[in-house]
Amino acid sequence: MSFLIFIFFFSTQVFSTPQIPDTLVYNGKKYDFDIDYFSPAHKYFHESDFVAPKEAVITTANYYPFIFTYEIINSNLYLTDVNIYVKGINTYLQVKSVFKDYFPNDDKILMNVNQIVIIPNGEIISTDTNGWSDSYNSKYLIFQFSKGKVTKSLNLTHEEYLNECKNQFQNYKTTREFKSLIKSAKFNEELNIHNKIYPFELNLTAEQYMEKRIFYYLDNIR
After folding, report:
1. Where are the domains of the chain?
2. Of 52-61, 100-109, 115-124, 135-144, which has the strongest mean pLDDT?
């Protein structure tokens, strides 16, 4: 994930209206994930010059007109639905599928992505530190995609997730990428922004910060 996306992600979490999430269907269950972090169909539509229908309604909760549904089928990531909001009776918004408007001859579209994706799920557990509300999820799904195919997956509790972050970070510390990244101005700018947004973590060191978010930096799960 790029530094700009990191910075945008943290700022939107704190200062902006929460956005309507995209959906991933995996093993028959639906999971929400943050569109600012991962939504390959957004890039696909942009590069394909796909324009939203005129009837699509944009609000403060969906600054992008499309809401995408993905599904992992036979270990491959597919786009399986595209929805928009339209005006309904008495001005209430209704959801409308427009998948066939863009893919009339297909039921699903393979998403050719190469990325590690984290999907927090389960119960949201809140804590309070120095007057600030902090929270984490009780479970985490992690997928490593290569050309749209799941090459590795992890299903972890919060405690297991923290342990895995620690293990992955210890391996990452031995690489050239780590030595270059931790000295870079962009990374330290990102760290400073994080510590300003979350003052209960003002003393977070560069290594502590990187360990907590190690999966966002990795190309491969070791």
Report:
1. 3-110, 115-216
2. 100-109
